[in-house]
Specification:
With about 130 residues, the chain is of the alpha/beta class. It has a 4-stranded mixed β-sheet, covered by helices on one side. Strands 5-8-7-6 form a 4-stranded mixed β-sheet, with no helix packed on it.
Length: about 130
């Protein structure tokens, strides 16, 4: 019998960050977004950066020497209660930019503290 071969899920998304930004990243991803910091393996931890999870969603922030924020490329993060989630972020000083160009969804964009673009979306109720 032939084994099935193929993609099954996205394991994680990695974003870049400048050296020394870990505290700001922790404040944003853990406090503002409500994610949990997860330990990096020791060999990788020596490189700096930090990893976060919320349920099956993982975002890895890796240190990049010649850092430039992702202004167009971005992870799309599905949320529930998008209006309340946006209000949560705005209450923590995060600017949200609503966009209605994706039929069947409510969505907004925000930037992390180092300038990476993030998309938050929730499908419309059926």
């Amino acid at each position: 019998m032939t084994a099935r071969v193929g993609l099954t899920a996205v394991d994680h998304v990695q974003l870049a960050a400048p050296a020394g930004s870990e505290d700001a990243l922790r404040t944003f991803y853990a406090d503002a977004l409500g994610m949990t910091e997860i330990p990096k393996p020791p060999l990788l931890a020596a490189r700096g950066g930090c990893w976060f999870a919320a349920g099956p969603v993982q975002l890895h922030l890796g240190i990049e020497e010649d850092f430039r924020p992702a202004k167009k490329a971005h992870p799309g993060l599905r949320v529930t209660g998008i209006e309340a989630y946006a209000a949560r972020l705005e209450g923590r000083g995060v600017t949200t930019e609503w966009d209605d160009n994706l039929p069947g969804h409510r969505r907004f964009y925000a930037q992390d503290p180092v300038g990476n673009r993030l998309e938050f979306l929730e499908p419309d109720a059926l």
